[in-house]
Design a protein that fits this description.
Order of helices and strands: EHEHEHEHEHEEEEHEHHEE
Structural class: alpha/beta
Oligomer: single chain
Number of domains: 2
Helix content: 25-40%
Strand content: 15-25%
CATH superfamily of the largest domain: Response regulator
Distance between the termini: 45 Å
Largest sheet: 5 strands, parallel
CATH topology of the largest domain: Rossmann fold
Number of strands: 12
CATH architecture of the largest domain: 3-Layer(aba) Sandwich
Radius of gyration: 18 Å
Number of helices: 8
Shape: elongated
């Protein structure tokens, strides 16, 4: 089996070498860059996953994430010592798919990487199409159109919409959604699901105060309404 390729952008050389060696032992090929501007200049879309530290010289990880998202649709993980809610939400807003706070055990990091890669692999697997009036969700093509207009969802947004819409009228808890999409146990603190729902509502034209497609069931979770407006 050919190794999967990871771009690691980290200026702590000791940590970077430890991570690279550990991942190499688990059949990953790691390209290490210590500066954000060098990572952008040397970037290849053939990488299977990108890991970005926030505080790197040349170009910070958040700016690099935003630049990469202009043409790269693969998974991006933020690996950083900054663990506040604002930093986490900002990273997700800029296109990151996961947010891991240092220090992190190597096996935990490996589990997060493997879960992220599995999620993206599932997104590429053809397995059906869903229609709700003029909202069409094509799993195989990972494409969503509303009134014949493409919505341009990220992989994370698409996965969440497909999960909710494949179980219309059913309340899914944040924990269940998180575990289904990430393959990891929900810690009760991660804001990924809430941020992604907010993005989806904007792209679906849903009123944040009185949404039609994705409703918040307070104290429980989220519910997709099959007869939302077309």
């Amino acid at each position: 089996m050919n190794p999967q390729r990871i771009l690691l952008v980290e200026d702590d050389l000791r940590l970077a070498e430890l991570v690279r060696e550990f991942l190499h032992q688990h059949n990953f090929e790691v390209q290490l860059e210590t500066r954000g501007d060098d990572a952008l200049a040397n970037f290849s879309a053939a990488v299977d996953l990108v890991i970005l530290d926030v505080m790197v010289p040349g170009m910070d990880g958040l700016s690099l994430c935003r630049k990469l998202r202009e043409g790269y649709s693969g998974p991006i993980m933020m690996l950083t010592a900054k663990g506040g809610d604002i930093d986490q939400v900002l990273g997700l807003e800029l296109g990151a798919d996961d947010y891991v706070v240092k220090p992190v055990e190597p096996r935990v990091l490996l589990a997060r990487i493997q879960a992220l890669l599995r999620r993206f692999a599932r997104a590429a697997t053809p397995d059906g199409e869903l229609r709700f009036g003029e909202l069409v969700i094509k799993r195989g093509a990972q494409e969503v159109t509303l009134r014949d207009q493409p919505l341009g969802l990220t992989t994370q947004e698409f996965d969440l919409l497909y999960l909710l819409s494949s179980r219309p009228g059913e309340v899914l808890t944040r924990g269940e959604i998180y575990e289904q999409l990430r393959g990891l146990e929900y810690d009760g603190l991660d804001r990924t699901v809430d941020v992604c729902v907010s993005h989806l509502r904007k792209k679906l034209g849903d009123d944040g105060e009185r949404p039609h497609f994705i409703k918040t069931i307070w104290g429980k979770g989220y519910l997709f309404v099959a007869d939302g407006p077309g």
